[in-house]
Structures are given as C-alpha cells and as structure tokens.
Amino acid sequence: MRGTEIKPNILRYMDENQRFDGRKLDQLRPIEIEYDVIKTAEGSARVKMGGTEVIAGIKLEIGSPFPDTPDNGALMVGVELLPLASPEFEKGPPSIDSIEMSRVVDRGIRESEAIDTKKLCITKGEKVWMVMVDICPINDDGNMLDVSGLAAIAALKVTKFPEFDGESIDYKKPRKKQLPISKVPIPITVYKVADKLFVDPVAEEQKEYDGRLTVTSTEKGMLCAMQKGGDEPLSADDVDDMVKIAVKKADEIRKKL
Q1: How many CB atoms lie within 10 A of CB 254?
Q2: What are the tens digits of pLDDT across the range 143-182?
Q3: Exposure check for the chain: N or C terminus, fewer CB within 10 A?
Q4: Who contacts 137 (Cβ-Cβ below 8 Å, separation ≥6)?
Q5: What is the spatial distance between Cα 139 and Cα 141, in angstroms, rounded to a whole number?
Q6: Does the pTM of the predicted model rise above 0.70?
Q7: Closest residue by Cα to residue 156 from 29, 30, 32, 33
Q8: pLDDT over 90 for what percent of the chain?
C-alpha cells in the first residue's frame, strides 16, 4: 500500500525540479557494475544504483526445445525477492511483484533478440542450451525492476559456455566461448506523480507514484517492450514523453556496460 504523508513534500520539491536527495527529475543515481562475482555461474554481475543492489547469475543447461521452435534455445528469468533485501518482502511463493519483474526482464531480453537463440541449438528437435537467469536483490532502495534488468544483461554479456562433449557438461573446465549477445536491451521505468515525470526513485518516492511505464530499448532507440503500472491512466502525451526519457536514460546506462 502506498503512503500519502510525504507526497506533498515530494511534489513541492519536484515543482523546483528537485528530489529529496538533490537530483534532478531525470537524473539517475551513481551506477556501479562488477562482473564475475559468482565463480560457480557461467556469468554473473553485481549492480548498484544508489542504495539498491542486485546480483544476477547465469546457468547454462542442456534441455529439449519447445515444439514450435525445434532449433532454438530457451531463456528463463526468475527473480526472488528475499526478506534480507527489504522488510516488505516476505518468504513463501513468488509475489505479484516478483512475477512481474521476472516477466518484464524476460520480455525485454527475449523481444530484443539480444541472444541469438538459433546458435543455442545442439541437435534440432532434441538438444538445446537453456539460459537460466537468476536475479537476487541484496538491498532495495527503490527502482528494483530497472536495476534487475541491468544486472541480467550485464551478466549475460560475460557469460561463457561450459565444456560439453556431446553427452555431458563439465562445469569445472575453463570456459572460452561467449554466449552470442548481439544487442543490449536496457529497461528504464519512468514514474508519474501528479503532472511530474521522474526516473530512478528512492524507496520513499516509489511508494507515492500514480502511474509508471517501463520501456526497454536497444541501441539506436529501438523499442522492444513496455509495461504499464500504477492505478492512474497515462495519456498519449504521457507515454510519448516517457518513451523519450527512457530511451535517453538507456543510452546513458549502456555506455557504462
């Protein structure tokens, strides 16, 4: 449930294009990216954006292809919101927020065609590589969805295939061949409170938004996925402005990868 006590203060600051932490409305917090933080994973990354921190790990397994795509590998994304990251997260089955984050991150990577899934085929109709993306928040101080998406693509960019002899996988041998990544999809969520649009909220700001739009884009501003959230509707002008902001911010982040 969103609070309302600090909303007037947020709006008062935003009327002067300011935030509680001194940023402008369209300004991101400092970003830190660390690669290969999990030695048992085929690829991993730790991403910090302000006080929000997320780790993503990639495992590659052998599986059967889907019947309608017999020569394509598969991608699966899972997000586990652990109580250690926020007192608002609870143990048990995946929450609505966890499911939404998994699907939004998955859709952005899948629809961008960032991974050439045909190159994941081992034997058509029989064996393909399955790309498993596990996302684990360490600390939630707002904007978890965007940070999770960034951690996922950062980990995928450094993922390497384990040794495979046609029958079994040897995860202990040195990895050399990179996962075929051709694009870098970046999700940016633009939030709206009253008539103000802003990005990368801290936890207090995120509780007060009226509507939001997550826009995933690749290089040259190519849109590949969008997800609307919040109780209030967005006008056509809102969506147009949000997309422009998201594409611009995605380009900023992409330079850090």
Answers
A1: 16
A2: 999 999 999 999 999 999 999 988 889 998 878 899 999 9
A3: N
A4: 52, 53, 54, 79, 80, 81, 82, 85, 86, 89, 144, 147, 148
A5: 6
A6: yes
A7: 33
A8: 80
d(CA 152, CA 169): 23
Can you say whether residue 20 is alpha, beta or left, with left for phi > 0 and alpha for psi between -120 and 50 degrees? alpha
Q: What angle do CA 195, 197, 201 make, to 5 degrees?
A: 125
Question: What pLDDT band is residue 3 in, cutting at 50, 70 and 90?
Answer: very low
Residues with Cβ within 8 Å of residue 103, at least 6 apart in sequence: 77
- Paired sense of beta strands 52-63 and 127-139, if any: antiparallel
Domains (ranges, CATH) in the chain? 7-254 (3.30.230.70)
- Nearest residue to 257 via CA among 114, 161, 118: 114
Alpha helices in the chain (DSSP H): 7-14, 96-112, 144-157, 203-206, 236-254
pLDDT at 63: 95
